[in-house]
Amino acid sequence: MGLNKRERNLLIGLGVVLLFWGYYRFIILPQSKNLASKREDRTRYENELIEIQTVIASEKEIDNRFAQINDEIDVLSEKYFSKIDQSRFILLINELLEGTGLFIQNISFAPQRTEGIGDALVEVMSVTLPYEGEYPSLILFLERIREHIPKTVIQNMNIRIKERELLSGTILLDFYSLPDLVRDTSMAYLFDSSEINPDPFYSFEDYFLFGDGYYGTIDLSGVKINFDSSRVLVEGFDNKVLDFVPSHPSIKGEIAANENSKQGANSLGLYYSFPPIQDEKQVHVVFNSREAVISKPPESIGLWVHSNDATKHNINLRIKDREGEKYDINLYNNVDWIGWKHLKGNIPQDSSLYPMEIERIIVDIDSIDDGKGTLLFDALEAFYIIETPVTDDNSIGNHILYDVRVGDTLSSISKAFYNDTLHQDDIKRYNGINSNSDLKPGKIIIIPDASWEEGSG
Predict the structure, then answer these.
(1) What percent of the chain has pLDDT over 70?
(2) Residues 164, 299 contacting (CB under 8 angstroms)
(3) For the segment 284-309, what is each residue's pLDDT rounded down to a tens digit?
(4) Residues forming beta bridges with residue 447, ordered by sequence position
(5) Cβ–Cβ < 8 Å for 148, 96
(6) Which bin fits 180, alpha (ψ -120 to 50), beta or left (φ > 0)?
(7) Domains in the chain, start-ordered, CATH in brackets?
(8) Among 333, 346, 358, 348, which residue's Cα sits nearest to residue 268?
(9) Nearest one of 132, 311, 138, 129 to 208, comparing CA atoms
(10) Low-confidence winner among 137-146, 164-173, 277-286 (lowest mean pLDDT)
(11) Which residues pair with 126 in a beta bridge?
(12) In angstroms, what CA-CA distances link 123 with 179, 184, 185?
């Protein structure tokens, strides 16, 4: 039986439906599922890519931080040793000394200690080096210490003139360590021992310059000084306020103790200002009578002066002989430095003029303009050359050399040599000491000639 038209249409419709259902079921639906899966994969891959990029960025940051830390460690390696090791420090000191001509008598190590620097704890060891040698040898050794990596700190330094061209004293070095952080570095160093500037040396202070000069990279302006038998401290200025006398009433100023000193506790500060006047302009620092006395003719006289502003002014000393005659000694013209400088001047050699009295320091102001100045004075010294050998009676020239013993005091020494206790200041002045605490057993001091001291009173 044949299909009518309606049945044929229904059959065709059913076929079309089956066709679309099959297309959807076997083509569209699988493709949709596959597309959804691909989208999930894409999302996952994108997330993984972000994670990878984050990790890469983090690794770059870590690398940069690691490089930064390495740079910081390199910086620390220039300042600190990897560990405290006495044997290596001995080798280092020997390496630094090689070819300098400086003689180190012994090496003394202090107990290791810990110090806080910022937030870090560092290990420290101090080493004391008693030395002896000429000026160029000492300068070369100090240059090597300055250039050495890791840095070695000169904590303190003591300098004495032992003979005309020979220095002695002690150097205190501090070695700092950051264990387990600082890289270890080689202790073997070779230095250029080529010739350095020769030294026409008598007073080493003239050559310890800072700013410019022979050895501008070494600043020893803060080094305290001591005195040996060839240097007599005439005036130390400790806790003394002397008289301020201007040459014109319009020049104003004052004198006061200052803690910035070269020896002892204080220096003498001079502070002055002046107007634009045509008259002679001078500032006088007047000593108290008979306090600054030179007993016998020295080779020269020296004074430490600290300038803050390079005033271009002149510095002179006025001295008075035993008959009252006065002499002006020029120490420096046109002050042109900043910081401490040692000034020296020649002094009359005629012994019949002595004892001589230091009457005043005079600052000449060679300027028609107004202005001001600040100067510090310290350690007024007389320099002697003691060439007479020590004889069996332990005397030298007109002085006695005495070995300080346990229990000695200024009073007991004065009593022993002068039969009174009135010469304590003379003993202090001749030996550059301030009190009984400076009388260490074994120290050799000068006992000035008692007959002169009694006759000069």
Answers:
(1) 76
(2) no
(3) 999 875 678 888 888 889 898 999 88
(4) 400
(5) yes
(6) left
(7) 86-223 (3.30.70.60), 232-383 (2.60.120.260), 395-456 (3.10.350.10)
(8) 358
(9) 138
(10) 164-173
(11) 174
(12) 8, 15, 17
Q: At what angle do helices 410-418 and 424-431 cross, to 10 degrees?
A: 110
- Name which of 340, 304, 348, 360 is nearest 322 in CA terms: 348
Handedness of CA 208, 211, 212, 217 (dihedral sign): positive
How does pLDDT run across 47-62, given as a tens digit for each residue?
888 888 887 877 777 7
* Beta-carbon-side half-sphere exposure of residue 44 (alpha carbons within 13 Å): 6
Spatial distance between the Cα atoms of 67 and 75, rounded to a whole number of angstroms:
12
On the question of pLDDT at 265 being above 70, the answer is: yes
Q: At 22, is the pLDDT very low, low, confident or very high (cuts 50, 70, 90)?
A: confident
The length of the chain, given as a count of residues: 457
Q: SS in 3 state form for 226-268?
A: CCCCCEEEEECCCCCCCEEEECCCCCEEEEEEECCCCCCCCEE
- pLDDT per residue as tens digits for the range 385-436: 644 333 334 444 456 777 788 888 998 988 888 888 888 888 887 777 878 8
Helical (H) or strand (E) element with 55: helix 29-79
Q: How buried is 283 (Cβ within 10 angstroms: 0-12 exposed, 13-18 middle, 19+ buried)?
A: buried
Q: DSSP assignment, residue 24?
A: I
Phi first, then psi, for residue 166 (nearest 5°) are -125, 125
User: Within a 10 A sphere around the Cβ of 390, how many other Cβ atoms?
Assistant: 11
Among 27-41, 64-78, 147-161, the range scoring the smallest mean pLDDT is 64-78
